[in-house]
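STRUCTURE REQUEST FORM
Protein name: EVE domain-containing protein
Source organism: Tenuibacillus multivorans
Requested output: structure tokens
Priority: standard
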Amino acid sequence: MAGYIMTFDDLDALMETAKIGVYSTRIKISDNKLWSTTNESTLADYSTMKEGDNIYLFHKRKIYGIGELVNIEKDCKLLNFPEANLPSRTKLKEIKNDAIIIDKNEWTDNKEHKELRWVCTFKHEPYFFSEGIDMDAALMSNPSAFKMLRAFERLSFIKIDDVENQALKSLFIKRFENQLEKPVDIIENHTIDKHNNIKLKVKNGNYTFNIDGITENSKINTHRFRRETTLELSLLYQLAEEDKHTVDIFGKWDYISHQVIASPFKPIIYADKIDIFGYKYVKKYPTVISKYLVTELKKGEANKEDIEQLLKYVDWVNSEYSFGDYSMIHAYLVSSDFNQEVLQHVQDIGTRIYTTNLRDNRSSEKWNNITLVKYKYDSYIKRTKFEIVNK
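Status: completed
Returned output:
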């Protein structure tokens, strides 16, 4: 399973979150009635959450135990109040009876106005602890496993893949092995009571997680988005929801994430990031990866440089994940349109010749698995439609 590491500025807030089993990111709300790229990126992470994924709570270099996302009324993520997707600022008195959780300290009228818009629900699995494990201890415990944890900077939370999640989970279980038999510093568990209260509230209101208001708010005209983060959010959401049309184009993936580091370790501001990355397992063997997804997104018309950037990511995934076997990689470039020059550029440079140790005769093989996909947002159905243009 995947994992999510949530960061807290305040340790007391972390402890309270662990007790009740409900997490929400405090997001900045502006007066211009538009969602920011940061807001959309946060929502994209929520979109990929599913029951069974692990959750970790982080404060000042330390991680405080393990939880597991659980569904309430068929989903582990919910709107915090019925109109949470609208980008306008709200007042506490307007939603205090409807909100799942409230952070009263953040309800001010200053320019740093922050609110809780989306929540996820989790249980202790097995415990959260009052004493955390230092980040360095985690990184040193299994250096090759950690990629995203090394890039954890100025983010409300990050998503980690199965390998990284298992390494972090193993560290906690080993570190607290004695306490698992007789725990002495575990945080109180009030999740059952809180989740039962949420169930009652959800039955009487519209708390179903969706992105309708965000995509509508961010469209620049009838069919295009003003930002690539909106396109990223829309594609991730539709893949996570297993929207039939989207799956027919891109396939079904067991793990999907966004903004995944795709360059040697360097200052985060200079690091290359894959817009959407994913993988799927061999059927009936849920620990063996069969395919990788590499996707580059452009809100407008694609150009030749976009093809070159996509291939750079393909080469990185081949080196870091598939270890020489290009046949495992499915690459996509998504944009509003493609001209003939781009179509020709794919033919000219979009091929890799490779060999792998999996072949007895070590003969050379050819990879040219780049799919060009045109997107069009449909306001009527509030979905993004996709169309393959080169196959």
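Reviewer notes: The CA atoms of residues 227 and 291 lie 29 Å apart. The mean pLDDT is 88.
Form closed.
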